[in-house]
Amino acid sequence: MADKEKKAAQGSKVEKAATDESKAAAKVAKAAKGADKKSDKPNFFVRAGKGTKEFFRHFRGESKKIVWPDAKTVLKSTGIVILVVAVAAVIIFGIDRGLGAGVTGLKSLANRGETTTTSAVAEDDHDHDHDAEEASTTGADSSKESTTKADSSEKETTAAKTTESKESSTAAE
């Protein structure tokens, strides 16, 4: 019995070896076939021509499947698109105007605060500038300045007299 088992084991080993050899032979044959196949392959331009021809054939078939809308549907869709664009334009215009007004309001608020601060500083600077002018004037300039002051005081006096005479004439009536 042991001999039969040994012979059966040896037989299975032989079968495995034969199977492995046949697989190896098949791989070699396939590789050789693949090498022949590469050489049988047409050049690039032939393949590109066939591919381009195939592309346009499929393209023509697909373009026949397109369903074009009728004139009524096109006009309706166009009207809807124009309406949506107009509504969007009005909304964007309103937002733009609102934001512009907000920025203008913020600028005016900022300028009010700067004007108050600036006017106080400007008055203070004006006093300093006037003092500096008086100190730097020459004799000729100071005579012009005194003439100007005298003219302005005469005008004030004349205006006061005119006002008093009007008041007295009104009181006399």
Overview of this protein structure:
- The protein is 92% helix and 0% strand.
- With 173 residues, it is an all-alpha fold.
- The model has no long low-confidence stretch (mean pLDDT 74).
Topology readout:
Elements lengths: L1 H39 L3 H20 L7 H66 L2 H34 L1
Summary tags:
173 residues; mainly alpha; 4 helices; 0% strand
Count of β-strands: 0
* Annotation field: number of helices: 4
N- to C-terminal separation?
A: 166 Å
Structural class: mainly alpha
Strand content: under 5%
Major beta-sheet overview? none
Instruction: Let me know the average pLDDT.
Output: 74
- How much helix, percentage-wise, in residues? over 70%
* Uncertain spans: none
Shape: elongated
Write the H/E string, N to C.
Answer: HHHH
Radius of gyration: 54 Å
The gist of it:
This protein is an all-alpha fold and 173 residues long. 92% of the residues lie in helices and 0% in strands.
